[in-house]
Amino acid sequence: MALRDIEDSDARKTIYKEIVISLANGFIFALGIGIVAYFWFHVPLLGVVIALSMIINLISAGFFGSVIPLIFQKMDIDPAIGSTVLLTSVTDVVGFFSFFGLVSIILL
C-alpha cells in the first residue's frame, strides 16, 4: 500500500487473501489454545469456546485489517496513522463480544 501497488481493482483480491490467511492462523492458534484451555481448566466446552472465539477474532482482524486501510486510502487519509487505533478497537470489541457471546450460548 505504501508503494501504491494496490489499486481499486486489487482490493477484493487483497481482502480475500487476508481473510484466508487469518482463517488459517485462526485454526492453528485455536487448536493450540483450545487444547491448553482444556488441560488447564478441565472443562472441554471452555476449550471449544476459546477456540471458536479465537477463530472469529482472527477472521475479523484479517478482514478489518485489510478493509480499514483501504477505506482510509480512498479518503486520502494516511492509513498508517488512522488504522492502528481503529483496528485495535474493532478487534478488541469483536474478541470481547465473541468470547462472552459464545460463553452465554454454549456454557450457560
Structural summary, described in words:
Helix 1 runs antiparallel to helix 2 and helix 2 (44-74) runs antiparallel to helix 3. This protein has helices at 11-41, 44-74, 79-107. 20% of the residues are buried. The protein is elongated. The protein has one domain: Tetracycline Repressor, domain 2 (Orthogonal Bundle). By secondary structure, the chain is mostly helical. Helices cover 84% and strands 0% of the residues. It starts with 10 loop residues before the first helix and ends with a helix.
Structural descriptors:
108 residues, mainly alpha, Tetracycline Repressor, domain 2, 3 helices
- Percent of residues in beta strands? under 5%
* Helix share bin: over 70%
**CATH fold name:** Tetracycline Repressor, domain 2
* Category from helices, strands and their pairing: mainly alpha
- Envelope shape: elongated
Q: Largest beta sheet, briefly?
A: none
The number of distinct helices, counting runs of at least 4 residues, comes to 3
The number of strands is 0
Calculate the terminal CA-CA distance, rounded to whole Å: 44 Å
Q: What's the structural domain tally?
A: 1
